[in-house]
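User: Can you predict the 3D structure for this chain?
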Amino acid sequence: MIAQRPPMGWNTWNTFGHNINDALIRETADAMVDLGYLAAGYEYVVIDDCWSLMERDYTTGRLVPDPAKFPYGMKHLSDYIHSKGLKFGMYSCAGVRTCAGYPSSFDHEYEDARTFAEWGVDLLKYDFCNFPNYANNKNRYLTMSMALRSTGRDIVFSGCNWGRGEPWNWMRSIGAHMYRSTHDIYDSFESFADILTSQIPNMNANAAGCFNDLDMLTVGMHGKGNVARDVNFTTMNEYITQFVFWCLCASPLMMGADIRNLDEDSRKLLQNKELIRLNQDAECRPAYQANGTTKDFPIFIRMLENGEFALVFFNLKDADRTLEIPLMDIGVPYSSGVGVDLTDMLTGEHIGIRRDDMRLRVTAHGTRAFRAKLVTL
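Assistant: Here is the predicted structure, written as structure tokens:
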């Protein structure tokens, strides 16, 4: 099965937008290997929008890579990426033009799928701009899914329709391996906090083979790049909250910063073994909000393999807050004679055994994340 675990990689869009070229992709592929990202699990190098000429070659019907940006062609670049032990991802759109106005795959699904397969593409991000009013959303994603299957090549199908038509109810059924159910992310706490709260009702839509994609990560951008904003620069504390939530939800982890020049704290966060272990947990169970429906201070549990579970606290407000949950609310009452043994996933600190309740201080816009196991006392 393709995508047994959430796909992990890097995408050009968040930082570079239309400013992409062959050298950038090769340098990033080198950095993925040399700086430890591949070893941590990040394997896809994905070229987003703006890679082609503005018109097809209508003698062949094919999309044409912009020779000024990609002078050696996509197959040559794909071969280089594969030589590094990485996988190659590309972008198209279900509409007649991409979001940036380049030719797209509406009514060209099968010829484009064959082209991508010949180039050695391993993942296709499939956007939703400039979609004809009369066309059927579900059918067009199904058509591209069938087109990719017809090539005989294993290609991760990343449906990106921003939540139109409740894709959590049908993207898995039409063959997608990951799907976007949110608006585009920006490099601000407000943006990803809105994504966080909007996806709490959809947490149960994840399972092996098809994952709810919360969009590309902005960790490490620090106000630089295509989706950056000039005000309210994101802090490291807020980036931690973003990354923990993406890992908790088993979202695909697609980095969006320029990893060639990432600060050390951001690199360590993106390569945190315990958080990636949480994201890639083999049971692929969804998280569960254990403290009702509050959006400001949600507390989650997530059942994990080997009888363990995650316990994660979020404070989305602008001031520090003490958060508390009775352990009976996560199914472990004091009368059980069982305690909860906790280890901090961010620091590695062994917290010890708790009974009755869990009470702790969480900084503004911050999070605390624990791996837990049950012990009989």
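The mean pLDDT is 96. The first strand starts at residue 8 and ends at 11.
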